[in-house]
Specification:
The protein is built from nine helices and no strands. It is an all-alpha fold.
């Protein structure tokens, strides 16, 4: 059997692949309206202290095996503290995490424990500085998603 030297990605898998960029203006293709893309975008725009808090909240429910696999092992450092309430994320670690790594982490957490994302939205919504920095449109989406979930309880 012969294979070509250049493989084209399957259209379905390319749709969900995060963009390798990590800057504040990074866009995740075809995922603009998804919650993982929204959280990754917010993460890139927030101040470092809030990034560390958000990352900690996202990492808390993730088990050791998932920590070694998600984002190519970017979170393997936290395996020994997996699911411990005392897990801490340093400002340096929060600064090193890329948008695509956050995207993959949020996508995993969204599937395994959606309540965590609602808690995350509450943290974001309570931070006035972040809400002002996000701009009206993104802030409205965050508040709408958070209130939709709160109204369903």
């Amino acid at each position: 059997m012969m294979f070509s030297k250049t493989r084209k990605p399957h259209p379905a898998s390319a749709r969900h692949a995060p963009h390798p960029q990590s800057g504040a203006g990074a866009r995740l293709p075809n995922e603009a309206a998804s919650l993982p893309a929204l959280v990754a975008s917010i993460f890139a725009r927030t101040r470092l202290a809030l990034r560390a808090r958000l990352l900690r909240r996202l990492l808390l429910p993730v088990g050791p095996l998932a920590l070694t696999v998600i984002a190519g092992g970017a979170f393997a450092k936290y395996v020994e503290h997996a699911r411990w309430p005392r897990l801490t994320v340093s400002l340096e670690d929060a600064a090193r995490v890329t948008t695509s790594q956050v995207f993959e982490l949020v996508r995993y957490v969204e599937q395994s424990d959606p309540a965590v994302l609602q808690q995350l939205m509450a943290v974001i919504a309570r931070d006035a500085t972040t809400m002002a920095a996000l701009g009206a449109s993104v802030a409205a989406i965050v508040l709408e998603r958070w209130s939709r979930h709160e109204g369903g309880r």
